[in-house]
Amino acid sequence: MKLGDAKDVVVKYLGAIAKLFTTRCIQHELKGMSNEFKDASLAARKLDCVLGGPEPPAKAFDSIVAAVEGDNAERFLVCTQDEKLRRTLAKNSPLVPVIFCHTSGLQMEPPADAGGSGVATQLEKMDKMPQNERDVLGQEETARDVNHVRTNVRYAKPKARGPNPLAMKKKTVKDPKVGGGDSNAGSSSKKKRKRRGGGGDA
């Protein structure tokens, strides 16, 4: 993606000091690829390798999955463009965040088990809580600070309102015959008289 040195880009994105690792299987796989991946191969050789895991010529894919399996004890964040690897990690290692390159820069795919909490450490703390407390958290809105102090906030339900008194008021219908007939008759008779008078003068 030509974003610059991998370490500098990741440190800038995370806003904290970070150390990049790779696996021996990745180094071996890149070394045997075409000249197009020469720069990537040289960059991978400069990184420290994750201890343990499968040895070359095992697949690079399997070495990454093995590095974060279980509870991800090393707290790795995986940087990859491999869609298949991202799906595998989401299924088998849901607490592992995944960083990938986008046209606008780096983006992080949140852990699949975060449940909207934002960080995996909060979920790990909840796993250690008694079941009854976890049930309470599921029923009420809960605010937690960094010390994991819980404050339950219950929102008041809106009170039911009665019917609109104006809508319940009966409408009064005026009788068109009352008062209306006489006024119309008077006006018509006046008009007739004017016509007659006008005709007599002529």
Compile the SSE list and pairings.
Elements (H helix, E strand, L loop, with lengths): L5 H9 L6 E2 L1 H8 L6 H8 L2 E2 L10 H8 L10 E2 L3 H10 L5 E5 L2 E5 L10 H8 L3 H9 L1 E4 L5 E4 L11 H4 L11 H22 L1
Parallel strand pairs: 1-2, 3-4
Antiparallel strand pairs: 4-5, 6-7
Number of domains: 2
The H-and-E topology, N to C, reads as HEHHEHEHEEHHEEHH
Q: Structural class, please?
A: alpha/beta
Which residue ranges are poorly predicted, with pLDDT under 50 across at least 5 consecutive positions?
Answer: 115-121, 139-155
CATH architecture annotation name of the largest domain: 3-Layer(aba) Sandwich
Give the strand line-up of the largest sheet.
3-4-5
How many DSSP E strands? 7
Can you describe what's shown?
There is one protein chain. The protein is built from 9 helices and 7 strands, in the order αβααβαβαββααββαα. It has about 200 residues and is an alpha/beta fold. The protein folds into 2 domains: about 110 residues, 5'-nuclease (Rossmann fold), CATH 3.40.50.1010; about 40 residues, no CATH class. The strands form 3 sheets. A 3-stranded mixed sheet has the order 3-4-5, with helices on one face. The chain is elongated, with a radius of gyration of 39 Å. About 10% of the residues have low confidence.
Features:
202 residues, alpha/beta, Rossmann fold, 2 domains, 3-stranded mixed sheet, two-stranded parallel sheet, 9 helices
In summary, what is this structure?
The chain is α/β, with parallel strands linked by helices and 202 residues long. 43% of the residues lie in helices and 12% in strands.
